[in-house]
Amino acid sequence: MIPLFLVRLGVRCLIAALYRVRVLGASNVPAQGGALLVSNHVTLMDGFLVGWAARHRHVRFMIWRPYYQHWALRGVLRALRTIPVDLTGPRAVTAAMQAARRELEAGHAVCIFTEGSVTRTGNLLPFKRGMEKIIADLDIPVIPVNLDGLWGSLFSFAGGSFFGKIQRAWPFHATVSFGAPLPAPATALAARQA
To answer: Which of 84, 102, 121, 170 is least crowded, fewest Cβ atoms below 10 Å from its Cβ?
Structure first.
């Protein structure tokens, strides 16, 4: 197992090398207790960017199981305590939602990319309602997160692929905005509008 502090240091160095990130509203992320961060999904680096921007919290993000199991990422993603999401069937998806719920109940911050996949067009996709099931009957803040300015960066799908493109700027300028907690009961529609 790779020590968490080494992984976090490596992620910070990678982000510092690739991006210049402006962070807005970081004080909206509570310093302790369970919190669900609901974000749009623009690049393959989004989880790292949200975790980096919420510096006073260790954020556990939900990730597609094939990425979680990839030999090059497995050690890092396990050290970061990510939550793998298996899309092979309803039971597997429910298990991932229950795992996220347990993390929230234990007082951790969890990030879910509610669009369900990285945008292929740069536009905001409809939000799926899985977040509503994760937070049902939990008294936790739901924080909307907006990742802006990342379309066209190295790990976005601009140009028809995630890799093999040249960024139009180096380092790439982006913004991570944390909104005010949504009023209960938070819905996928309210999160998308926020």
So the answer is: 121
Residue 177 has pLDDT above 70, yes or no: yes
- The answer to the question of residue 27 being in a domain is no
* Non-local CB neighbours of 104 within 8 Å, separated by 6+ positions: 34, 35, 36, 110, 134, 135, 138, 140
Residue 110 lies in a domain: yes
The CATH number assigned to the domain holding 138 equals: 3.40.1130.10
| 3 state SS of 53 | helix
Residue/partner pairs of 89-98 with CB below 8 Å, 24 or more apart: 93/130, 96/62, 97/130, 97/133, 97/134
d(CA 4, CA 163): 27
Instruction: Write out pLDDT tens, residues 91-133.
Output: 999 999 999 999 999 999 999 999 989 999 999 999 999 999 9
Is residue 71 one of the residues assigned to a domain?
yes
User: Can you give the residue range of the structural domain that contains 99?
Assistant: 4-17+33-193
Determine what percent of the chain is predicted with pLDDT higher than 70.
Answer: 95
- Packed helices 4-18 and 46-53: angle between N→C axes, nearest 10 degrees: 100
Q: How many domains does the chain have?
A: 1
Share of the chain above pLDDT 90, in %: 66
pTM over 0.85: yes
CA atoms lying within 13 Å on the CB side of residue 183: 0
